[in-house]
Amino acid sequence: MLYFQHDAIPSPDVPLAILNLRLETAETDEERQTVLAELKDELNLRTSIAQKMKDIVTMATDDAEQAEDILVNHHRDITARPCYKAAVNHFHDTCYDLSQVRYLISDTSLVCIYNIDIVYITL
């Protein structure tokens, strides 16, 4: 039996991997079209969420270059910080159902790391 030190597929990408596998194993054109539509929806949602996070961070920093740096270069585990739960709950209630988009939680942590006021999370 093989043991992997890390997951073969990062957790946020599991839904895409499942859809890709379903696409590869689809037996009919109708089934392929259904899976392709689901895949397109998933990718569109990810793009939409990424843009919303960029908008929030850009608005909060009032600096597009700094916002880009924050989004690209600053990924930390901050779940123990006091503001994290409030930020996640507010984002969940205001923007997206986080249980449906698990990969978004890491992006939401940026709100806490950079002390972005949660009033900005109403875009």
From TrEMBL:
It comes from the Eukaryota. CDD domains: legumain_C. This is Uncharacterized protein.
